[in-house]
């Protein structure tokens, strides 16, 4: 039970909001709720441990709420919506969402994703140093050539896994098992999106590229 963790549910549908609240409370979480985008944004900026965010909200839609949260906070965000088009998923990820779940959904899957996102916030220890990259796991910070690299929680965990398992080519499934764990039930093709985002931050502008693609197999960081 995660009795110390607070989850904010931003959902305007009262039936869905109530189900989510009951299921999360049953798992031991403290649950706060908001019925529209503006009130959800206000509560999200008070730093809960995780936000479950619907997209179709009154007063301010979920995309805008996500954008404004990310401007001030690194709190994990799980988007929850009936819109399942790839373009919507990518738009949510671009704005800083950590995960995306479409309606209808199973409560077991939602709870699994909540657990996975919260695990990413558990404190780590020591430094990982490789070439000109320094990952400080106490501070949850990454620097390359002395420059601070701002990463989302998912990008950070993906880079950490690749750095800890250098010189091995990882398939998408291996990366999901290693980074998300068995609780993750999403589309494995999304790993390509996260790799692309990570490369844009960690490799673009540097002559020495860190992440290698092995066509038909997967991804690696090689010496």
SSE topology sketch:
Blueprint: E1 6-10, H1 14-26, E2 30-34, H2 37-44, E3 50-54, H3 62-70, E4 77-81, H4 86-94, E5 99-102, H5 107-119, E6 127-130, E7 133-136, E8 141-144, E9 147-148, H6 153-164, H7 172-180, H8 190-202, E10 212-214, E11 218-220
Parallel strand pairs: 1-2, 1-3, 3-4, 4-5
Antiparallel strand pairs: 6-7, 7-8, 8-9, 10-11
Helix pairs in contact: 2-3, 6-8
Description of the structure:
It is a single chain. It contains 8 helices and 11 strands. It is of the alpha/beta class. The protein folds into 2 domains: 6-119, Rossmann fold (3-Layer(aba) Sandwich); 127-220, Winged helix-like DNA-binding domain superfamily/Winged helix DNA-binding domain (Arc Repressor Mutant, subunit A, Orthogonal Bundle). A 5-stranded parallel beta sheet has the order 2-1-3-4-5, sandwiched between helices. Helix 1 links the parallel strand 1 (6-10) and strand 2. The longest helix is centred in the N-terminal third of the chain and has 13 residues, at 14-26. The model has no long low-confidence stretch (mean pLDDT 88).
Q: What series of H and E elements makes up the topology?
A: EHEHEHEHEHEEEEHHHEE
Number of strands: 11
The percent of residues in helical segments reads 25-40%
| DSSP strand content | 15-25%
Task: List its salient traits.
Rossmann fold, 8 helices, five-stranded parallel beta sheet, alpha/beta, four-stranded antiparallel beta sheet, about 40% helix, Arc Repressor Mutant, subunit A, about 220 residues
